[in-house]
Structure formats: C-alpha cells, structure tokens
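Summary of Year 1 activities. Much of the first year was spent building the evaluation harness for sequence design. The harness presents a backbone, in tokenized form, and records the residue chosen at every position. We chose the following record to illustrate the format because it has been used consistently in internal testing since the harness was completed.
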C-alpha cells in the first residue's frame, strides 16, 4: 500500500497495485496519482508532496538531499523528514485502530477482498478522524471497550485507549 495523507493523518490517496516487495518508486511511477500530478493545475501553486529518498525530486515532489553531513541541507532533511513521518504515523494509527491488520490475511480471503477491506478501513479511518474533529456533525461519544475488545487488545499486544483522552 502506498498512500498520501494530510497533517491530521487522513488518507488522501491510496494505491494498492503491487506486491509488498515492489520498490516505492516503481509503485509510485505506475500509480494513477503520478499521472494526475503531472497534469497542469492538479496541485495548487506552491504545493508539493514530500517523499523519501526512494523517490525522485520533481516539480511536484521534494525529496531529501543525499550524502549530507551537516549545514543547511542537513537541517532541510531533518524538517522534511518531520513532515514525511505523518504518513508513517497514519499507517500506525490505521493498524492500531483496526486490529485485523495486525495479522496476515488468510489466503482464502483473496487479493481482491483484502484490497477492498484495506480501502474500506482507510475510509473508516478518515471518518473517525473527521468525527473526532467534529466535521461529521456528531458528538464524540466513544463507547467503552467490551470485555472481548479488552481481551483481544491484551492478547495481541495492543495498547488500551483511554476514551476520556481527546487524542483518540
């Protein structure tokens, strides 16, 4: 899965087109997003995506400097990585929120259903973020976990969330 997310961790673009061993660059190069980004006017002027060193620096994607040992380029790389880490945090939130992603999917489910499941969970992830931020017009009434939820969390190495915490 290759994804673009915003500062809140919402998934803006998801591509599940290649097996896990495929390089990030090849996955991006063949993705629909790359072709959209190459269209004039797709991104507002001054906006870019932040990619890691697996990508190529272009007019729509900025990447870190290579082989830097200090100075302003090293400073740039540090701050650029702070922006990129948000997508990694999004993956972590997704897996933590939906425990089914913590284990391999059974082979009998199939690739098409697995892809559909992951896409659905990403949409639900975005919905949860919107709800938390009050963008869905709902109250943030999060029910307490059931005994079965608690047991599953503990057995699978999860961390129980405190529903009174506003950062859920």
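For this record, the design step produced the sequence shown next.
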């Amino acid at each position: 899965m290759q994804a673009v997310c915003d500062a809140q961790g919402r998934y803006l673009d998801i591509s599940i087109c290649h097996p896990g061993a495929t390089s990030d660059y090849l996955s991006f190069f063949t993705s629909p997003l790359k072709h959209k980004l190459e269209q004039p006017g797709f991104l507002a002027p001054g906006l870019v995506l932040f990619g890691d060193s697996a990508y190529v620096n272009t007019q729509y994607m900025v990447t870190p400097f290579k082989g830097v040992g200090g100075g302003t380029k090293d400073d740039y790389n540090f701050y650029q990585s702070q922006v990129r880490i948000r997508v990694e945090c999004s993956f972590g939130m997704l897996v933590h929120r939906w425990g089914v992603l913590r284990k391999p999917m059974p082979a009998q489910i199939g690739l098409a259903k697995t892809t559909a499941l992951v896409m659905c969970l990403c949409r639900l992830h975005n919905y949860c973020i919107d709800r938390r931020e009050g963008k869905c017009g709902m109250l943030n009434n999060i029910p307490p976990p059931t005994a079965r939820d608690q047991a599953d969390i503990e057995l699978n190495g999860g961390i129980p969330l405190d529903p009174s915490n506003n950062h859920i």
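The chain has a mean pLDDT of 84. Quantitative recovery figures across the full test set are reported in Table 2.
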